[in-house]
Write a structure and sequence with these properties.
α1 runs antiparallel to α2. By secondary structure, the protein is mostly helical. It contains 5 helices and no strands. It has one domain. 84% of the residues lie in helices and 0% in strands.
């Protein structure tokens, strides 16, 4: 059963990261948009992505990850897992920061440029690199 949980965990992680990569890209385009039709379209896209895909994917990812830990509690004594869980916590914070930005855009209260969002979009890439290296290499 563990391998089934792991497989669905990986699928949920891929889905979550796809949304984490795409939502800030929508922010870039939204921040650049000048006409109300485009701005309203981006608001809908951002809301649906965040609520319909990103948040459910995060919940499934975390639930399956904790289920695997419950089945393999010995991993909690390994340093690589502590580092990975720290990255996961940072990703959850990033997720909720995206949610705040969705609300700001929805309220027409965005105060940042598209350049900020281009850089903001890079954070999950760093987390993904670190998490994959930690899980595969288990350096400590």
């Amino acid at each position: 059963m563990y391998l089934w949980i792991k497989a669905f965990h990986i699928i949920a992680v891929v889905t979550w990261f796809a949304a984490l990569f795409y939502l800030p890209r929508l922010f870039v385009y939204h921040a650049q948009s000048e006409d109300s039709t485009s701005q309203e379209r981006f608001k809908i896209m951002e809301r649906k992505l965040y609520r319909g895909i990103m948040t459910p994917s995060m919940v499934v990812t975390l639930a399956l990850g904790f289920w695997m830990l419950w089945l393999q509690p010995a991993w909690l004594s390994q340093g690589w897992l502590h580092a990975k869980l720290t990255l996961v916590a940072a990703l959850v914070v990033y997720h909720f920061a995206c949610g705040r930005l969705v609300k700001r855009f929805a309220a027409d209260a965005n105060a940042r440029s598209h350049v900020f969002y281009r850089w903001f979009n890079e954070a999950p890439v760093l987390v993904l690199l670190g998490a994959v290296i930690l899980v595969v290499v288990k350096p400590f």
